[in-house]
Specification:
Blueprint lengths: L4 E7 L2 H12 L7 E6 L6 H11 L14 E4 L9 E5 L6 H6 L2 H6 L3 E5 L13 E7 L5 E7 L2 H15 L1
Parallel strand pairs: 2-5, 2-6, 4-5
Antiparallel strand pairs: 1-7, 3-4, 6-7
Helix pairs in contact: 1-2, 1-5
Length: 165
């Protein structure tokens, strides 16, 4: 999997995570994108997804799909396209991939957000964007964003521009 571009970000607090999510939600490329979230327990993966879905107009409860593996949403800002939040933490059987129709979900237009993608290694298509979240001693987060496709690269450039302005 090739990396077209890498950019660092820092979230000193939860508000910075929320601002990042709002900037991400405002990028037009987000409507049809696959984003992998990498980081240990408590790194902020689910918090980022919640902030992003809220910024896209999702109301009501946004829960972690840890036991269901996937939660589906219809964010108003995506103009009819779905958002799928995957959590592969408890994923262990490759047959589950086919049985659950995940291949079809990843092939269809929409926003795909995947936590613990390494648990589904070899089955996930390459992401457009991969975010690596690291918790620092002061509870801030370092985020490394890697673009793996031209679409992901365009989003990363736009996201950086929006966060800078």
């Amino acid at each position: 999997m090739s990396i077209l571009e890498t950019r660092p970000f820092r979230w000193p607090d939860e508000a910075a995570c929320e601002r990042f999510a709002q900037a991400l939600a405002s990028c037009p490329q987000v409507a049809d994108l696959s984003i992998e979230l990498d980081g240990g327990l408590g790194a902020g993966k689910t918090s980022l997804v919640r902030h992003l879905l809220r910024a896209l107009g999702v109301t009501g409860r946004i829960k972690s799909p840890s036991y269901a593996v996937v939660e589906d949403y219809q964010p108003p800002a995506l103009n009819g396209l779905p958002a799928h939040h995957f959590d592969f933490y408890r994923f262990s059987d490759p047959r589950e991939w086919e049985d659950a129709g995940f291949r079809d979900l990843f092939a269809a237009p929409g926003l795909k957000l995947s936590e613990w993608p390494e648990k589904a290694a070899g089955m996930l298509p390459p992401p457009d964007l991969k975010l690596f979240l690291t918790v620092n001693a002061d509870d801030s987060r370092d985020v490394r964003a890697e673009a793996h496709t031209p679409r992901g690269q365009a989003l990363l450039v736009e996201l950086s521009r929006r966060l800078a302005g």
